[in-house]
Amino acid sequence: MALMVLFVLTKTTKGHLQAADIGSISELNGYAKVVRGKELGAELNLGIESLDNVRSDNTVTYTGTGVNASSGGYMWLDHTGGSRTINITQASTLNNDWVKITSNGSNGTFCVDQNDQGTATGC
Amino acid sequence: MNKEDNSLLILSVVVVLYLYIGGASQLLAADNEIWMDQSGATANIDLEQQGGSNLIGGVGSVPGTLTDFDFIGTTNTLDINQIGASNLWKGDITADSYTGFFQFTGNSNVMNVVTDTTNTYSADSSNVNIAVTGASNTLTLNQATTAAAGTLDLDWIIQGSNNTITSSININQATNYMDIDGSDNTVTYTGTGVNASSGGYMWLDHTGGSRTLNITQASTLNNDWVKITSNGSNGTFCVDQNDQGTSTGC
Lengths: 123, 250
Description:
heterodimer; A: three-stranded antiparallel β-sheet; elongated; disordered N terminus
């Protein structure tokens, strides 16, 4: 999973009622996009306007199967960024599944399903 | 085969049975655990556990010494689904205007959740739905003990016997509806705050015998309102509307 860090430089604007140039992307690690009517791939020095929606939009789909998750086995997700889609299924049949999620961001969905390979209702 | 051999044979069979049964019970003990710390707005969180003795961690959680279930922000949606027996959810929710769906299917489950005890976001305008099918479950929800749960819409649908439901709400304009079917259920509800006010109420629709219903409404400056429909034999009701004065109690 890529960890995305996005920095946007801003500059002072005065009295604009419509979208205005407010800066540019100065640092980018991982994937991001800018929604401005249509989606633009984020890249260094891309201009950012006042009504832009800058998204990190990472998707994680993880499925852990097997018999024994057992001692010492786990899933740990440390996440920062908005509009994420996180789907985690842990389905080891005979032992402990363990997941730790730290997430800081708005929008998006999480689905964590620990089902012991039984019939889950799903998310 | 002499008497001593017979004794040894019986002992061996007992040991084998003990190991088999013990081993099998260990194999069936699938204790899954979820540790979560989410902060941010407008997220949809869905956590589901199937099987017995699972844990979603939070305040004071034990088996594997889990801590944090933190759910922080505004306008989030949280869906908890535990299917099985002896599951445990301990949560610390710091949220305004969140939507919650908490569903438990099975016996002897424990839910122990507090919402915004520090008044970080207040705890207004949330829509919380708790659905339980099973017996001997223990459910505790304390909503906005410091802040006011203004316009909270709280609904409980409980199907089963011997369940224990405890809830304390700072109820300014909040509604608390409980639909409980089953015998030997215990409800302890305390509504505090300043204004229960217009639109706020407690409504209990109950069927089943040997119930224990304790309802205290104690908002100081406005109208407390309770409606109880109960069909069953035996048990006790205690309804106390005291405006935070000194009441004699039941």
